[in-house]
Design brief:
The structure holds 2 protein chains of 2 kinds. Chain A is of the alpha/beta class. Helices cover 35% and strands 25% of the residues of chain A. In chain A, the strands form 2 sheets. A 6-stranded mixed β-sheet of chain A has the order 6-7-8-3-9-10, with helices on both faces. Chain B is an all-alpha fold. Classes of the chains: A alpha/beta, B mainly alpha.
Chain lengths: 248, 324
């Protein structure tokens, strides 16, 4: 069972995003075995775990790409787990998905405009904010997105999600496949985004970096939350150090 | 043997007009394929149904002989709009009722369903207008049909015929092609269509209603097919329940030739097929005595095979840059 490193028996009903005991299946295979987590307004919360533990499945279920068989997900108190992905997006959940999944054959600008699809027209302020976070994207506005480098594509994926001005930003493995220097940049930008007021749920394999920037974290193993606590607590936890930080 | 320039120009005109019509139908194939990777084999029949509806619309007006240009133009426009609406709604309904249910089925299932629907629509066509070739109800009087712009209007000394009818086909087709291009590349709906075509899941994450966007592609493809149905019926002055088969097959070939999923490719492919079609049907006979229209499909599909061998993505189709 999941247990808190520190017993903070807080009430999660005030959470921005509240995931309650969800189970998600691929056909007959159960990927999530009752996941509960919450993200409060203004927090960075990270979900760490190894390959195949269910991190991406959790995010896809929150976004509505997958439907939980049981359990509920609410956003600002409003039930979203019964709604399709495009409705969930319109309600304020944006995701920069695993593998970036930018629109390769469109320009950088078109990708950003699609990020703001729910709003109809992109807001110039959002665009200015994205360009100030990622000056590279402004330089490459008219470039076909698929021809950019991996790091630039990751910036575009995050920028595109920000264009929706989300209540909660879901980031799925933003550091995957990037050079160490770029990884640092991306994590810095995640903190900047959060400092500007965006609530972030961050899925990462790079547990050390993720826990360092997160207010709180959850450890997921084979579809279950096995540990939770503040970033600092988890960084100091023996099990986390052995399993995810590669210490003996 | 000497090159007959007049004859060549004549078949060039025929080829371009036919090509524009094929392009209009080919765009329906390519739009739908681009977005759901389904070859909508019922598309030719949607075109045929549009043609049939336009015939009914024209006879509802009951034009008497001696109608003026303005009246003809008005009835034409109304009949064409009716055909566009009808074919658009038909194609949309087919997606809503059949293909949408098969969205997550193996890819063979919607393909077989498409073939089934094409048979059903042909059956409806026979029931509606009979199984023989029919003459469309009176709309364009013969004297207007045969007006030659070059000699009758411009007073040129030439044996080339460029009829007002040919010009009308171009004037009706080109704005539709431009409108489509505007829709796909300039509007929010078009952007959503391209996004869904590239990555359905990512498009949904942007807040795009994927099913609705796919339905829009079917609607737009059907609208173009309906317009083509009216134009073909009155350009060739015939209609038949099987007309969708030949035009559909040539249009599908045009779409593949140009690079399926690529709009410009469909137009280019349509023009090539139209030109090959007219040159083979007529021009080649001047030089090869035993040549005839029966060889046309051989040439058209021969060209297709050659392009597929040397450029499998089609003329304008390209391998997408994908970075991991």
């Amino acid at each position: 069972m999941a247990h808190n490193v520190m017993s903070n028996g807080r009430d999660s009903s005030a959470a921005m995003l509240d995931v309650q005991d969800i189970t998600t299946f691929y056909g007959n295979i159960q990927a999530l075995k009752g996941i509960s987590l919450h993200v409060d307004q203004g927090e960075i919360v990270t979900l760490i775990g190894s390959n195949g533990a269910g991190k991406t499945t959790t995010l896809q279920t929150i976004s509505g790409l997958l439907r939980p068989r049981t359990g509920t997900i609410t956003l600002g108190g409003k039930l979203i787990s019964d709604k399709p992905a495009h409705v969930v997006a319109g309600l304020g959940v944006a995701q920069a998905p695993e593998g970036r999944r930018i629109f390769n054959r469109m320009t950088v600008m078109e990708n950003l405009e699609l990020g703001a699809y729910s709003h109809g027209k992109p807001d110039p302020n959002d665009l200015a904010r994205v360009f100030s976070l990622f000056p590279r994207l402004e330089e490459r506005k008219t470039q076909i997105a698929g021809t950019m480098s991996g790091g630039e594509q990751q910036m575009l994926a995050i920028g595109r999600a920000l264009m929706a001005r989300p209540s909660v930003l879901l980031l799925d493995e933003p550091s995957l496949g990037l050079s160490p220097m770029l990884v640092d940049t991306i994590f810095q930008i995640i903190q900047d985004i959060n400092a500007q007021g965006t609530t972030v749920l961050l899925v990462e394999q790079n547990a050390l970096k993720a826990l360092a920037v997160a207010n709180r974290g959850y450890v997921i193993q084979t579809g279950q939350i096995v540990l939770s606590g503040t970033g600092r607590e988890l960084l100091g936890n023996d099990m986390v150090r052995k399993a995810y930080l590669g210490e003996d | 043997m000497e090159f007959n320039g007049t004859l060549f120009a004549q078949y060039l005109i025929l080829g371009v007009t036919n090509g524009a019509l094929i392009a209009l139908i080919a765009l329906g194939y390519t739009l739908v394929y681009g977005i759901v990777e389904l070859i909508n084999f019922a598309h030719g029949e949607v075109f045929m149904m549009g043609a049939f509806l336009s015939l009914s619309a024209v006879s509802a007006f009951g034009l008497v002989s001696g109608a003026g240009w303005a009246q003809i133009a008005l009835v034409s426009l109304v009949a064409m709009l009716a055909a566009m609406l009808f074919s658009g709604a038909l194609n949309w309904s087919i997606d809503r009722v059949v293909y949408r249910r098969l969205r997550s089925a193996p890819r063979l299932a919607p393909l077989i369903a498409a073939i089934g629907i094409s048979f059903i629509l042909q059956g409806i066509g026979i029931y509606w207008k009979g199984s023989t070739t029919i003459l469309p109800p009176n709309l364009i009087p013969t004297d207007i049909r045969s007006v030659n712009i070059l000699t009758d209007w411009l007073g040129l000394e030439t044996r080339i015929r460029f009829r007002a009818l040919d010009l009308a086909v171009i004037l009706l087709t080109v704005p539709l092609l431009i409108a489509l291009s505007w829709l796909v590349y300039r509007t929010r709906t078009g952007k959503a269509m391209r996004a869904v075509a590239q990555d359905r899941g990512a498009a949904a994450l942007m807040g795009i209603d994927v099913n609705r966007t796919i339905a829009t592609a079917f609607l737009v493809g059907g609208i173009l097919a309906g317009a083509a149905g009216f134009i073909v019926a009155y350009y060739t002055n015939t209609a038949r329940f099987q007309m969708g088969f030949r035009y559909g097959l040539f249009a599908f070939t045009a779409a593949v030739l140009g690079g399926i999923g690529n709009l410009n490719g469909a137009v280019l492919g349509g023009l090539i097929i139209g030109l090959v079609w007219s040159m083979s049907d007529g021009f080649l006979q001047t030089y090869i005595p035993w040549w005839g229209a029966q060889w046309t499909p051989l040439i058209i599909f021969g060209v297709l095979v050659l392009v597929m061998v040397f450029k499998p993505t089609g003329l304008l189709g390209e391998a997408v840059p994908e970075k991991v």
